[in-house]
Structures are given as structure tokens and as C-alpha cells.
Design a protein that fits this description.
225 residues; alpha+beta; Jelly Rolls; Arc Repressor Mutant, subunit A; five-stranded antiparallel β-sheet; four-stranded antiparallel β-sheet; 26% strand; elongated; cNMP-bd_dom_sf; DNA binding; transcription
Length: 225
């Protein structure tokens, strides 16, 4: 991981929901009031983890990351994924990763904005008003994360491997608004997400393709029936 200490955030932030409701001309000064810094990560780096609590808010602005959970025996399962424009760690829930044995792991190069909303802010009243708006936006982002975890529980409630796979693919299709779509996981990651063996997943995908239910090429899928 590397940190950028420049007071200018050299990263795409104009379209972030984090800054929704804040005038474009005020965003740079608000980020300065928060002492915001850009942190950059490579594949496999941990953005937030079970080893320690969260001392700042970390917001993903580039790249993707997996939400990985480990059980008492060290077995891995994937609870979901983050794409850019999502909070991956927050002072509003500082022990979330620790309490739930989670690591947030970069799937490739990515970047975050790190800042603290709990420190005493010395700034103009205008900035303080906008910082309160950021706090509200963070709560909305955390709510979205909880909804993602609930969706996973709905998928896992299905009994058979086929039911789990089809429920997940239908959900992704609905999110994409198309019967052709991409998923953020490779085969092992998808197996970990669905809590099934990779070999069982591969067999079921092959059967479903032979039966004309789906077609796929790597992580690109289509629902064909």
C-alpha cells in the first residue's frame, strides 16, 4: 500500500455518491477539512481486516475488492464484493471486520480515499455543513452493504447447487438489466461465495449449459431460457 499526501486528491471523485449533495466547487475544500488522503493498493492487499479495528473511514474510488470471511478452521468464504464508489471501512462501525472475521482484499490495483469524520473539524461553517452531508451518505453506503449481505443469505437459502447458481445468476442479470452480464468472481471465488465445492460448481455449470439454461465464457454469462 502507498499513501499520497498531496492536499489535492488526484483521483476521480466528482461522481462519487460520497459527495452527493455537495456543490462541485466545495468538494476540494471539504476533503481538505477532512485531511483526506489517497491510498493505493495492489492485488492481494488488505484494505481493512480482522487483525485490527478501523481508525479512519476508507472509501473505494478505483478498482474492486472481495469481502472474505474465515471460520474457526480457517476455511474461506466470500460474502460479496465492493466496486468503486463504496465504503469499505468506517469509524461508524470500527469493529465490523474484527467482530465478523472479515478481510477486505483487493482483486487488483485499486485506490481509496482515507479520512476521519470523528476528529474535531476546524473549518468554516459551510464545510461543517457539507461534512454532515458526507456522514449521511456514509450511512446510506453502509445500508447498501448490509443489503448485499442479506441477498447472499437469500441465495444460500436454496438447497441444491443448481438452485444456488441460478438464484445468483438471476440476481446479477436483474442488477445488469440484461440477460447477458459479467460477474466479479472467478470459479474458485464463485464457489466460495455460494459455499459449494469448486468441482461441484463446474459440473453444474456444464450441465446447465448443455441443457440450454445458460451460456458462459469465463466470467461472462447469459441466461438463455
Amino acid at each position: 500500500m502507498s499513501d499520497t499526501d498531496s492536499p489535492t486528491i488526484d483521483a476521480p471523485v466528482d461522481e462519487l455518491s460520497l459527495l452527493e449533495g455537495i456543490p462541485a466547487e466545495k468538494r476540494a475544500s471539504v476533503l481538505r477539512c477532512l485531511n483526506a488522503r489517497v491510498a493505493r493498493f495492489e492485488k492481494g492487499d488488505i484494505l481493512a481486516g480482522r487483525a485490527h479495528g478501523t481508525s479512519c473511514t476508507r472509501y473505494l474510488i478505483e478498482g474492486e475488492a472481495l469481502i472474505v470471511r474465515y471460520d474457526a478452521a480457517g476455511n474461506r468464504s466470500i460474502l460479496g464484493s465492493y466496486r468503486e464508489d463504496a465504503v469499505v471501512a468506517s469509524e461508524l462501525a470500527p469493529q465490523f471486520c474484527v467482530a465478523n472475521c472479515l478481510d477486505i482484499v483487493a482483486t487488483g490495483p485499486c485506490a481509496t480515499i482515507d479520512f476521519s469524520i470523528s476528529q474535531e473539524i476546524e473549518g468554516c461553517p459551510c464545510c461543517i455543513k457539507h461534512i454532515n452531508r458526507i456522514k449521511g451518505n456514509l450511512v446510506a453506503s453502509l445500508t447498501d452493504m448490509n443489503m448485499q449481505l442479506v441477498k447472499r443469505l437469500d441465495t444460500l437459502a436454496n438447497r441444491s447447487t443448481r438452485e444456488k447458481v441460478l438464484a445468483y445468476l438471476q440476481e446479477r442479470s436483474q442488477e445488469a438489466g440484461s440477460r447477458t452480464f459479467s460477474i466479479p468472481y472467478n470459479r474458485q471465488e464463485l464457489a466460495d461465495y455460494l459455499y459449494i465445492e469448486r468441482s461441484a460448481l463446474s459440473r453444474e455449470l456444464s450441465r446447465m449449459q448443455r441443457e440450454g439454461i445458460i451460456s458462459y465464457d469465463r466470467n461472462r454469462f447469459a441466461l438463455t431460457s
